[in-house]
Amino acid sequence: MRSTSVSRADLILPERLDVTTVGELREALALAIESGPEMDVVIDVSEVRVVDSVGLGLLVTTHRNCLRAGRRLVLVDPQPRLLRLLAVTRLHRILHLQRAIDLSGPSAIPQQGLGA
Questions:
Q1: Helical segments of the chain, H only
Q2: How far apart are the first and last CA of the chain?
Q3: Helix or strand or coil: residue 20?
Q4: CA–CA distance, 45 with 74 (Å, rounded to integer)
Q5: Burial (CB count <10 Å: 0-12, 13-18, 19+), residue 33
Q6: Three-class SS of residue 60?
Q7: Which residues does residue 11 pair with via DSSP β-bridges, in sequence order?
Q8: Rounded to two decimals, what is the model's pTM?
Q9: Element counts in the chain: helices (H) and strands (E)
Q10: Which residues contact 16 (CB under 8 A, 6 or more apart)?
Q11: 112 has pLDDT over 80
């Protein structure tokens, strides 16, 4: 995982990342990908408590759209419940995760160290 200094979040996701919220979030994420001058698209996921398959699909689609734009999606401060879901679905292997405590790189959550 590449170390980066992150001092801002492009978007803060709400408590629910599910079929009821993905419509408006899809547009906001697309804008974040298109508008930012920096390499990383930083998404604060610290408030996310509920995620369904549609929400996971949105994260994967956003990750792919970032790659196509030559950027990287970074999910900041995922809570234990979201970490477990990402580990079970093996998405922790492709999505970039960082803790909010120190976003300068050394505290990055190891992608392989989550266990399943």
A1: 22-35, 53-68, 80-88
A2: 19
A3: coil
A4: 10
A5: middle
A6: helix
A7: 43
A8: 0.78
A9: 3, 6
A10: 48, 49, 50, 55
A11: no
Distances (CA, A) of 52 to 19, 32, 42, 49, 57: 7, 22, 21, 10, 9
Is residue 49 within 8 Å of residue 16, measured between CB atoms?
Answer: yes
Long-range own/partner contacts, residues 100-109 (CB < 8 A, 24 or more apart): 100/44, 100/46, 100/76, 103/4, 103/5, 103/6, 103/7, 103/76, 104/3, 104/4, 104/5, 104/6, 105/2, 105/3, 105/4, 105/5, 106/3, 108/1, 108/3, 109/78, 109/83
Q: Tell me: the pLDDT tens digits for 28-53?
A: 999 999 887 778 999 999 999 999 99
* Structure tokens belonging to residue 53: 């398959």
Which whole-number Å values give the CA distances from 115 to 3, 83, 90, 105, in the listed order? 22, 10, 10, 21
Domain architecture of the chain: domains with CATH: 11-98 (3.30.750.24)
**Residue reference for tokens 């922790």:** 92
